[in-house]
Amino acid sequence: MSTIHWVEAQPRSARWHSESGLPLPRRVVVADDRMRAAVAHRLACEGTALLWRGDFHNARQLLRAMDRRVGRSTPGVPGSAAEAFHAQRRFRAHRARVLGKVLVLLEEDHTLALRRAPDVRRACDEAYGPPTDGPFAVALTELLGVISAREWREKGVHVPALGARVHPHYGVFAPTRSEYVDLVARAPLPCGGAVRTAFDLGTGTGVLAAVLARRGIGQVVATDVSARARECARANMRRLGLTATVRVTGPGLYPDGRAGLVVCNPPWVPAKPASDLDLGVYDAGGGMLRGFLGGLAGRLEPGGEGWLVLSDLAELLGLRRREELMAAVEEAGLRVVGRMDTRPRHARVRDTGDPLHAVRAAEVTSLWRLAAA
């Protein structure tokens, strides 16, 4: 286990944990309410981590002040969309490294022993699993994400196509963009509408599996590589009363057998994820997309279809060409039998301050209906 070391009256140490893949801090100093944001920012940029021992709310204020200083170094918008995308990723990685230098110590039972600190034990239990031996250190930014995830898990996300809420777990992509769910809810079912079995590959929260079940499909098999996602999907099926219809399995992409309908909503951006938390957005080299296409023809029942739910964001960013997608479909022994398109409705489309605003405003999400050639 990685371990951080610091001096606090005497030499001390604790395990280091980072869900987002932040590197092990090599130098750690104790900080409290007397720490000024300018000093904290300088130390963080130099690679020194600050183990916070002051007031919890003051630590959050310090993070906001440091963030303002990081924001002053935001790069200018480059010429192409691809350059803007890569520059934005580099800046976000830099920001995460700097702000991730403010650390807190979680006790063995996940207690946060700071003045005015909230009770984070349940949130940490859900994110990290049962308490382990001894305390461990995490970035305050990560802990705030864990707290936020607990709130999302509690209140859920309303999905109009279901008329119900879906409750995302920590580390599982939340279905906050309803337009792609609406496509799956509206597309005409293959096999004359009499689909007995459907697969939902990369199910995440299970939202698309739930939509398929509500459409009357007798058996839906939902898969995911992530144990967190499988647990989340099972919990949502229990909430929705769909456990008799939806079976969640993994970690393989395809389950055994064939289906009249195979649905896949892979991560839309073929870029390397920084950590497992990014797997819902980034698909390194388009691996999941290729896996879906390559296995589809051999898993379809006669008259069956595969539905690929995919944004053209990667094409607009210059990370993939439409010709490459069509060539991959053909090479997999498939043909396109139909397509449905929709425009994004999320708030970032209207954010003119976003360096990628023009790309986001032009984005189209499509449901490609594929059949064996």
From TrEMBL:
Pfam family, one: MTS
Domain of life: Bacteria
Keyword Transferase listed: yes
Domain Methyltransferase small: 194-272
Any GO MF annotation of the entry: nucleic acid binding
UniProt keywords, alphabetically: Methyltransferase, Transferase
GO BP terms, alphabetized: methylation
Name of protein: Methylase
Record organism: Streptomyces variegatus
